[in-house]
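Weekly structure sync, notes
Attendees: PL (lead), two postdocs, one rotation student
Agenda item 3: pending single-chain targets
PL asked that the sequence for the first pending target be pasted directly into the notes so everyone works from the same version. It is reproduced below exactly as submitted, 204 residues in total.
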Amino acid sequence: MDQSLSALLEESSARHDHLCPRQILGVRVGLAGAAALGIEVPIDDKSLLVILETDGCFADGVEVATGCTIGHRTLRVEDFGKTAATFVNVATGEALRVAPAANVRQLAYEYVPDEPRHYFAQLSAYQIMPAEELLLTQSVELIRPVAAIVSRAGVRVNCAACGEEIINEREVLSGDQTLCKPCAGDVYYVVDSAIEAEPLSILE
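Predicted structure, written out during the meeting:
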């Protein structure tokens, strides 16, 4: 096993106290996606944007391999429940989607034929399988320009309905009003009226 891969897997497993197949896939996908774009990783700038299609162990593997993080706004999650990621060259807009081959679990047994247990066959095989057998890479075009996804730092507006501040150009224009996404109807929560009637004094 390549020493750099070994070190990355060790770093990823330290976050979970164990190593699992999805962490390995995350590291391998991260390395392959960046290499296909010709970007050296781990990055120390904002030249690479990675859009993950799931969270969890896979995400940690990709983060360790690329150096992309949510905090630096170089890593995003669009949760489709898929072990895949799209890699974007921020300067050029070139984008590549990388995912495991559809038959990767079956292929794993060809590399470790003496291991009958599914989990451990994948754990070993995913570390040694050639990238061209392990992964599929597709050239893709982003629906939104990368500049709109990343947005401009320092832009702030207030929602006309709830009054809360909106950053990163995530506001929605509704007629002549500027709204946050929840007030515009794009929500993942509903307000509990009982809690709203008795707001928590978190600053006290």
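Discussion points:
- Residues 21-37 form the longest helix (17 residues).
- Helices lie at 3-14, 21-37, 57-66, 104-111, 118-128, 131-134, 146-150, 193-197.
Action: rotation student to compare against the earlier draft before next sync.
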